[in-house]
Structures are given as structure tokens and as C-alpha cells.
Amino acid sequence: MATLELNRIGKVFGTTRVLSEIDLAVAHGEFVILVGPSGCGKSTLLRIIAGLETRHDGEVVIGKKNVTGLRAKERDIAMVFQSYALYPHMTVARNLGFSLRIKRLPKPAIAERVGRAAEILNLTPLLNRYPKELSGGQRQRVAMGRALVRDPAIFLFDEPLSNLDANLRVAMRQEISDLHARLGSTIVYVTHDQIEAMTMADKIVVMNAGRIEQVGRPLDLYDNPQSRFVARFIGAPAMNFLAGSMEGGAARIRLADGAGELSLAGRPARSGAVEIGVRPEHIRVGRDLPEAALQGIVRHVVTTGADSYLDLDLGSQRLTALTQERPDVGPGDRVAIAIPPSAPKLFDTETGARIEF
């Protein structure tokens, strides 16, 4: 295990800058997940940490050692890829021990490390099988075991669960989390799935267009997004956004197109156009809500069992509400909409930055 520091990392492909001034510190034993949309630079950054991609600016420090100029095999890291990258002609045992044989470790040492990794990952009954005889989840565990036997300073995961079906992804998330808790490993993990990030990470790094938008603990990002991008990206279903304006003299927002007004009790008034962000679970919908300040039309109702989602028309704007009650309304119904004064987050319409009070 080790710490990781990235200092002003930059990367250019041709004339396109894909990473700009990335600064990041990962503590000893921390599980850090890089998230963001396709093309934001998260996998490129992981490959730079691994030494599989060169950087144009900045430095990579693992432990107290500057490894910027070192090759991948000299960095004391182990990487788990999306594609598993198993050797089809080798058994599970030989796949697990391959890197150790390359290093010419004694056979007893190889057998001990392979046995320990197989026990940790529940692979012992599978050691004599070939990859074609394994399920997707088993193959992923073998890929993790190949990293584990190396006993690296840092584990790197590049979207390791994206090839698995939904139920298996949930199970593998727990396996990786359990592995981290058991080993206390330092992990840097890339995914485009923000649910993975929210359920597994100690710390999330949200990336956008080659830059870091925000770094924080999962619930800190959810509760206190510092930009419209983070607010929209973190959370499923995503945060709702409404166009509106504030007028001096009262802490109230007038929604666009005459859709109504929202109170912002306890916050000072200001003037100008704003975007209002509201989480779906903070919206109450009913036929008669005395505290409701808004009216809307139900477009769709989707019930998934414990949760129900309501798509609402609010003038020319749209809202999604989330409730754990079975709604007694349906498409076409006019409903009352209540939003607590403390719930809305305000964002600058031009920059997308959070407006702080």
C-alpha cells in the first residue's frame, strides 16, 4: 500500500488537450473512484498513473517516489482491465501465477501466493479450470487475483464490471468492497457508472472535459454539488433543473413561463436569473397539498416496486419526483407540487457554478 500524488498532470493527443492541470492526492489505503462521461479523460489518467501512457505535463508520485519517468513494471502497481486479459491456454492457477513466473520467483513462493489469492477470492475449486470454463464473474475474480498475487503498492481498476450483467455487477461491487476492507489496499478505480462510485468509494473524483470538477465523499457530492455538472451527474434519477429568476426584497424564485414561485426561506435575497436544482426525492406530489406552491400535469408514472417515479409538466418545464408511496394519480391528472424551502440548490445560468449564500 502507498499514497499517490498527481501534480498538474496534462496530456495532449495531436492538437487536442485531453487532460489539464490534474492535481489529486490519494491517501494510504483509500478507495478513490474516477467518474465522468465518456471522453472526459478518466481512463487516460489511470493509464498515466500505470505508466501505460505518457504525460505531457506534471508528475506522478507513488509513496514518496517520483515515478514519472519509470516504466509500468517499475511502478509497483497492478491493473485490472475491463477485458479480463486472461490467457486462454492456461489454467486459473497458471494465470494467477504468470507474473510471478516472469519474475522467476521460486515455485514454493508462487504456490503460496496463488493459494492465498485463490482463498481470498473463492477461486480454490476453480484452479484447474480454463477461462472458457468460467462465468463472467469468475473470470473477473481471476483477473483480480492476478493483480492480488503481485502484492502491489496500488491497485488500478479500469471499468472492470462493465462487461457483466446487472445482477452480477451488484455482486462484484460487494466483492471488490470486501476485498478492499480485508486488505486495506490503496485503490484507484475508473467507472462511468455513478451508482458504482456512490456505493463503493471512500472518495469520488468527478471529471469533465479533462478537468476535475469536484472531489469529495459520496454523500458530500450528492448533498453539496459545487456545479451544475456534478449535480446532474451524481444521483439517479438526476437532479431536476428549473429556469427562474430572483428579485430583490424577498428570498423567492419566480419560475420561467409563469409556472409559479418557490420560497427560499432563511436565505438572503438577490437579483438575477438562476437555475434551480431539486432532487426528485425532495418533491411531494398530491391532489391536495396545503403547502404546495406549484401546479403541474402528470405525464408518466413508473412504479418499480418500492419506488415510484412521476414525470411532471410544470408549464414548459419538466420535473421528476421520487416517492416510496403508491401514487393515486395517473397521466393527465393535474396535481399540487410542494418543494421545501431548504431543498433547492441555485446555480449560475452562465457558468454553472453553485451560488453560495
Give the topology.
Layout: E1 4-13, E2 16-26, E3 31-35, H1 42-50, E4 57-62, E5 65-66, E6 77-80, H2 92-102, H3 107-120, H4 136-148, E7 154-158, H5 166-183, E8 186-190, H6 194-200, E9 203-208, E10 211-216, H7 218-223, H8 228-233, E11 240-246, E12 252-255, E13 261-263, E14 272-278, E15 284-286, E16 294-303, E17 308-314, E18 317-323, E19 334-338, E20 345-347
Parallel strand pairs: 3-8, 3-9, 6-7, 7-8
Antiparallel strand pairs: 1-2, 1-4, 4-5, 9-10, 11-12, 11-14, 12-13, 14-20, 15-19, 16-17, 16-19, 17-18
Features:
six-stranded mixed sheet; elongated; alpha+beta; 357 residues
Q: Compute the number of strand runs.
A: 20
Largest sheet: 6 strands, mixed
* Share in helix: 10-25%
Using only C-alpha atoms, the radius of gyration works out to 25 Å
Shape: elongated
What is the arithmetic mean of pLDDT? 90
* SSE order: EEEHEEEHHHEHEHEEHHEEEEEEEEEE
Order of strands in the sheet with most strands: 6-7-8-3-9-10
Structure annotation, total helices: 8
Could you tell me the strand content as a percent range? 25-35%
Structural class: alpha+beta
Our measurement of the CA-to-CA distance between the termini, rounded to an integer number of angstroms, reads: 41 Å
- Identify low-pLDDT runs: none
